[in-house]
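hi! just following up on the protien thing from before. the input was this:
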Amino acid sequence: MQCRLCQKDCTLRNSHIIPEFLYRPLYDEKHRALLVEPDSLDRPFVQKGLREKLLCDACEGHLGRWESYFAGRWFDPNILPDEVPLPNQVMTVSGLDYAKMKLFLLSVLWRASVSRRSEFRNASLGPHEVKIREMLLADHPGPADAYRVLAAVVVQRESRRVVYEMILPPVQKRVQDRVSYELVFGGVDWLFMISGHGTSELDGYCLTEHGDLPLLPVESDRIASVLALYQNRGKLR
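and the predicted 3d structure came back as:
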């Protein structure tokens, strides 16, 4: 079988689409996570996240370097505060390794796009699937205006605590007439602007090459477009 990353014929691993460590906050006492599909009333239990035959051993290790970076930087200890008290204030996470962070995030989106699982049917990067694959193979994150990343921290309405117990698969959106994808994991609602380079009015709110990531809070029962959060704040016209 052919590895989806290196495209060599080899034995494939049962690869996670969204890395296993991101499911840990969802597990119950039997090590099960509750999977909810947006357009389905069925809520099956799954174990060890969602997997399929996708990558060879070498490519698992290749992507695993960025998974290890994100797991350690984001969760050990938690990079986000326990509570986010103010509903409309931008907080900025600084000191991130831009290349490792960007490549990790793109790797999750890319895996969702190449996956044949029904849960990820709304993630289809088209020609950008090849471009991102080449970036992952070359360890090249590209500039900040190539596949811009915006983010909002997900909080519980009353307690204002960060909600890590939520994973939502990608959905496609249109942002400034550009194809974009939004997905939730790690306590954050992530927005990837797929098409378009050059200057954007959103540049001040994206992951920067200096390792800064601005975040606005979004309440977990009102997940909405990250773009709408910034527009409603009155900073974008």
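Residues 31-47, 233-237 have pLDDT under 50 and may be disordered.
The CA atoms of residues 20 and 48 lie 6 Å apart.
cheers
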